[in-house]
């Protein structure tokens, strides 16, 4: 395994869609309708242009590759929720199942946190669907659940999701690089 990380470009759109669709199938099986999850896989090619357009507008898209295969993605930006308007936001952090628990997600998260700090953010917000075990990863690095919301998903309706807040990105970054935090 030779894992590398870099910013995404429009030529990565299919691989990004692939990772998102298959990681949703693996992570949300039993939480979302199976037909919806399978449709996400069937529609990868069809949705590729949407991803290309998104990458053009959002340069904060990092991918993890094993050789030339995209195996993980992380997208981050500023938060558009009024009460968290000055927070950074993780929009998506997905890994294919075979690459989970190897430190790759941690590295993608670290890259996002480091870049958000450089952009002047001190705090971070993300949503994590109820039943998603990734919540334990976020808690390990200081994430606190502040409330549960109804999160809309097209063709599914509302699902319950936790809003997770990180109050000090410098402390999060230090935990990610294993530096002692006071």
Helix-strand category: alpha+beta
- What percentage of residues falls in helices of 4 or more residues? 25-40%
Question: How far apart are the first and last residues' alpha carbons, in Å?
Answer: 35 Å
**Oligomerization:** single chain
Query: What would you give as the CATH superfamily?
Result: Gcn5-related N-acetyltransferase (GNAT)
Spatial arrangement of strands, main beta sheet: 1-2-3-4-5-7-6
Mean pLDDT: 94
Q: Tell me the series of helices and strands, N- to C-terminal.
A: EHHHEEEHEHEEH
Strand fraction equals 25-35%
Could you give a short account of the major beta sheet?
7 strands, mixed
Our count of helices gives 6
CATH class: Alpha Beta
DSSP summary, beta strand count:
7
Radius of gyration using CA atoms only: 16 Å
Low-confidence runs of at least 5 consecutive residues? none
CATH topology group: Aminopeptidase
Indicate how many domains the architecture comprises.
1
Shape: globular
Using the 3D structure, state the CATH architecture: 3-Layer(aba) Sandwich
In words, what does this structure look like?
Strands 1-2-3-4-5-7-6 form a seven-stranded mixed β-sheet, sandwiched between helices. A hairpin with a 2-residue loop joins strand 2 and strand 3. The model has no long low-confidence stretch (mean pLDDT 94). The chain has one domain: Aminopeptidase (3-Layer(aba) Sandwich), CATH 3.40.630. The chain has 182 residues and is α+β, with helices and mostly antiparallel strands. Helix 1 (13-28) packs antiparallel against helix 2 (34-42) and helix 4 runs antiparallel to helix 6 (169-176). Helices cover 35% and strands 30% of the residues.
């Amino acid at each position: 395994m030779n894992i590398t990380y870099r910013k995404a470009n429009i030529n990565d759109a299919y691989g990004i869609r692939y990772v998102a669709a298959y990681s949703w199938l693996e992570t949300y099986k039993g939480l979302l309708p199976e037909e919806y999850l399978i449709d996400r896989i069937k529609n990868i090619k069809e949705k590729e242009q949407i991803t290309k357009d998104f990458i053009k507008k959002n340069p904060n898209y990092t991918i993890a590759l094993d050789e030339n295969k995209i195996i993980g993605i992380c997208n981050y930006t500023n938060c558009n929720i009024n009460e968290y308007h000055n927070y950074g936001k993780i929009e998506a952090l997905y890994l294919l199942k075979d690459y989970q628990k190897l430190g790759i997600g941690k590295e993608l998260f670290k890259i996002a946190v480091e870049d958000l700090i450089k952009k002047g953010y001190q705090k971070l917000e993300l949503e994590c669907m109820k039943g998603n075990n990734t919540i334990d990863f976020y808690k390990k690095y200081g994430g606190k659940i502040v409330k549960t919301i109804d999160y809309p998903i097209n063709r599914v309706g509302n699902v319950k999701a936790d809003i997770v807040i990180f109050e000090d990105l410098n402390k999060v970054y230090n935990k990610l690089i294993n530096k002692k935090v006071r």
